[in-house]
Amino acid sequence: MSETVVVVVPDADILASTVAARLVIRIIDAQAVHGTASVVLTGGRVAAKVLRQVRDLPAAAAIDWSRVDLWWGDERFLPSGDPDRNETQAREAVLDTLPLDPARVHAMPASDGPDGDDADAAAARYAAALSAAGLRFDVLMLGVGEDGHVASLFPGHPVLEKEGIAVATYDSPKPPPTRITLTLATIGNADEVWLVAAGPDKAEPIGTVLRGGDLPAARARGVRKTLFLLDEAAASKR
Ligand SMILES: O=C1O[C@H](COP(=O)(O)O)[C@@H](O)[C@H](O)[C@H]1O
């Protein structure tokens, strides 16, 4: 049975270092069991902070980075290298400094990629790659939007009803309007789902979710564990 755990720490900086430390240990443990580790990254402000902390942790030296698969939960469908792409931000925060195997860094396609600006084709390409890799994730991290969105799954948006592994979404309320996102079904394949939120703007959605309200963030659940990793401000309305 899946367990839900809520961890609250004093502030956003401590949250970033706590999540980074957990992530490093989780990757080390996954590699001990499977030989590899499969991690799904999120975009957003807290994610960049976490990744910068990973780089500075001495224990990260115990990871064989060449045997880590990195995926993304969602992407802003923009040209490669655009500063607003979640991939670009993760690369700048840490990825470009780690000895990763480029073939294991599975960024979502860009709008100037092999499918051009056809977001549906780009999402189908990513879904095929995920499917070929077996859809196994040790950890899947998600930021939480002020409106309770996770990945690019916005409340009340038709994308929530789309079926598949990864799908394109249009008319997102948060720019840019065109995005690619994992579906809730795919998110639900992860062994552990970590919802990471910091700051007073996240207090309302987090409070709603922890009281059992219906938001996309409430529907993201891990197979074995769902972890809410919060700072005190984000946890203040629960
Ligand atoms: O646009 C996005 O926003 C959410 C939340 O970002 P935050 O800066 O408010 O933490 C993020 O989780 C998602 O990956 C991203 O595409």
UniProtKB/TrEMBL annotation:
Hey, which pathway is this one from?
A: Carbohydrate degradation; pentose phosphate pathway; D-ribulose 5-phosphate from D-glucose 6-phosphate (oxidative stage): step 2/3
One of its Pfam families is: Glucosamine_iso
Domain (Glucosamine/galactosamine-6-phosphate isomerase): residue spans on this chain? 10-222
InterPro entries xrefs = 6-phosphogluconolactonase_DevB, 6PGL, Glc/Gal-6P_isomerase, NagB/RpiA_transferase-like
| Catalysed reactions, as listed in the record | 6-phospho-D-glucono-1,5-lactone + H2O = 6-phospho-D-gluconate + H(+)
SUPFAM superfamilies, per the entry: NagB/RpiA/CoA transferase-like
Q: What is its EC number?
A: 3.1.1.31
A GO molecular function held by the record: 6-phosphogluconolactonase activity
The record's CDD domains line, in alphabetical order, gives:
6PGL (cd01400)
Keywords (A to Z) from UniProt: Hydrolase
Signal peptide stretch: none
Annotated transmembrane regions:
none
Output this protein's name.
6-phosphogluconolactonase
> What organism, scientifically named, is this protein from?
Actinoplanes siamensis
Underlying gene: pgl
